[in-house]
Amino acid sequence: MSKAAKATDVESAIEVDESSSNDEIEGHREIGAGELKAIAEAMIFVADEPVSAKTIADVIKVDREAIDKALVDLVAEYDARNSGLQLREIAAGWQIATRPEHHEQIRAYLKSRPSAKLSLASLETLAVIAYKQPVTVPEILEIRGVQSPSAIKTLLDKRLIVAKGRKETVGRPMMYGTSKEFLIQFGLKDLTELPSIEDFQDLAGGES
């Protein structure tokens, strides 16, 4: 089923009759705990990027606390049934992801598919930026020992890095850091969960 079709199903699930709109109190409506979990799970599933609890609450017009509880219950349910999937908080939002214990098999599958991966130069540059940010191009050159202009452009085009302002030094060079898209790409909640070098290597093998 396409995501458009899935999204249609979600819209149908949360549709409210116009005739009942007058019964809502301050834009809120009563939804059972089971239905709330189902709707939250469906929204997270069809989303292209992590969805925040606030976004879910705003869309279906319920209290944020109710969504927080629904998400906690969903996490517990995924864990209890020992599913190959898990509900994870990533980049200030929630996303359905594969479990770490299955990463080797998932990695092997993904490597078997043709995809636009990063070149080794771009990969090395991304690693330097991730661990040393905010960092300038001269600083990247000092660490890598080679120029990185094309790699920087590639990473900017892929939205894996963003400009972080200029450094107050001679020439005021631009500083770079990782983006929200970087967190999503690697499945990270924040920068404290930076991946290992092996995870960076999974992106290698394409053209910059």
Describe this structure in words.
This protein has 208 residues and is α+β, with helices and mostly antiparallel strands. The protein has two domains: 3-102, Orthogonal Bundle (Arc Repressor Mutant, subunit A); 114-201, Orthogonal Bundle (Arc Repressor Mutant, subunit A), CATH 1.10.10. Helix content is 49%, strand content 12%. The chain has ten helices and five strands. The protein has helices at 3-14, 33-46, 53-60, 64-80, 103-111, 120-132, 137-144, 149-157, 180-186, 197-201, and strands at 85-90, 93-98, 135-136, 161-166, 174-178. Strands 3-5-4 form a three-stranded antiparallel beta sheet. A two-stranded antiparallel ribbon has the order 1-2. Strand 4 and strand 5 form a beta hairpin. Helix 1 runs antiparallel to helix 2 and helix 2 (33-46) packs across helix 4. The chain is elongated and about 60 Å long. The chain starts with a helix and ends in a 7-residue tail after the last helix. Residues 2-8, 10-27 and 204-208 have low confidence and may be disordered.
